[in-house]
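Lesson 9: reading folded outputs for more than one chain in a single document. The general rule is that every protein is listed as its sequence immediately followed by its structure tokens, and records are never interleaved. Here is the first one.
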Amino acid sequence: FATTPIYSGGNTCTVVFSVESYRQTTIMNTQKPQILLTNDDGIRSPGLWAAAAALETIGYVTVVAPREQSSGMGRSLPTTSDGIIAPENLEVNGRNWTVYAVGGTPAQAVLHGALEVLPHLPDLVVSGINYGANIGSGVTISGTVGAALEAAALRIPALAISLDTKMEHHLSYSQEVDFSTAGHFAAYFGEKLLQKRMPDDVDVLKVEVPSGANPQTPWEITRLSQVRYYHAEKPARTSWDQPTVLGYHINEHWQDASLDSDVQALFTRQHVSVTPLSLDLTSRTSFEALEALLG
């Protein structure tokens, strides 16, 4: 047993809970597909809750997400995370949810959710909806994508979904951003992953939704752009002992990306980009040619 604060209607109270009882109450309807939902923007992100509302039309949703903003964590599993799982009651769109805030990264939230919160592995893991696109060669930085890759490593079908937003909204919980269309596509592709087995070497579907999209916006299969869309910026400081963060800006040469890439689909054609990702990071070069080169 342990104690945890429960938040409801702006009031806080401390209750005693049984870990096992919380594991059992996550499965309210065993006839429905079980969906584990996480993100990298944190447990209180409006994008997360737009996904929850959309996904509950296709299954039973259990929300296990980082306690804090965790953008840029990739698939990391740092030993410095405390791993605390705090059940909370949140009211979203007039409905009370029991959710699980994890002291850890998005990938760690997936592991804690799949191995501790749920009594068995879920049928689907969805990560998102992220503030801002995750595109091009920088996707391994993304906690949204990293969480989906961690789920795939458990052999769970996984979807990572992001909505293109203004850069000023990337680390925000801005209410100006409308996630309803991205929620529609989260449910659409989530249902496909529940209904159909993906081809070999398709471990994650990475979905990027244009900012002006609607449910009728076309989608297309794309490849990762080899052109990095966001470039890191040199910190503006006068001494290395000054704390700082690395900023980023949009690559002015993003149009050089191949026409079949996620970047071009999203920004040139304003289509929903669907990129199949694989855990197999092996280069597609000729082994014979490489062996000869190294011999």
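And here is the second record, again sequence then tokens.
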Amino acid sequence: EAPKTKDALPIHRKAPKFEDQSTTIKNVTFEADGINGEACIYVPGNGQRYSCNVTIDSCVFQDSGSTTGDVTAIKQATAGCKNWIIKDCKVKNTMHSLMQVHGINGLTITGCEIESLRGVNLNNSDNVEITDNKMNVEKYAIRTGDSSGSGAGITLTVSENEIISQGVSGDAAIILRTTAADAQININENSISAPTHIGTEGSVNTDNIDINADANYWDGEATPTVNGVTVEVETYYEDSERSELLNSADGTPVNPPAEPTPDPAPTPTPSYGGGGFTGSYNYPANVDVSEGCD
């Protein structure tokens, strides 16, 4: 049985000499009720820039409900950390969120099951991949960009996820904030169900945001419901299982079934009956007629 704890687990790295070291936290169940820290797992305070190569694997974060959604599972508040992997974790009950992080360069979140008030808040984290997760949240599932500052050139890939957002307080499933102004965002092969699928928060200059959002399920619609941003979509799925890819312009299949190939016509069989040779083809033959014929 996985060990259980009500203690918060800090990750301390205060000097560059620790930047190449790694940390793995695996198979731990965190009880959030009355936990004695900022989050279940956290990088404390400012100046902790060297918490790199961190893997959090197969951990469970749960809350009986007494904290009313105040505790997040994983928190990191200072830019400069690199190469984090969060995989096969579970967030249960009324936890605040799976992650609240700032400026991680290289973050992978995969195979997680998230049932909480919110999903992941990335702020200015870059080179982020969110793949093959199941998220069922009340508010946002994914939020990227800080609330103030200039464009940060964020790259975010969201693929193969099942996302449900209830849209409480008007939140979109995927939210772009102010510093997402120069972001490259790829949203592909997801099932996303929400009152608003993609939206903005605060003052966001969307002119330079590049969003590729093809091949998704948007509650059966050809295009996502958006707020504050324009998203051009060429293909979509009409069903949440994503069984057949359709063209957004007219709803026709992208790869229609091939026309059946007709069976070839039968080849006539020559006959050599009493009436002589019959048939529709000429067949070469070497015939010796020197003795004549009867």
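What the second record shows: The chain is about 0% helix and 40% strand.
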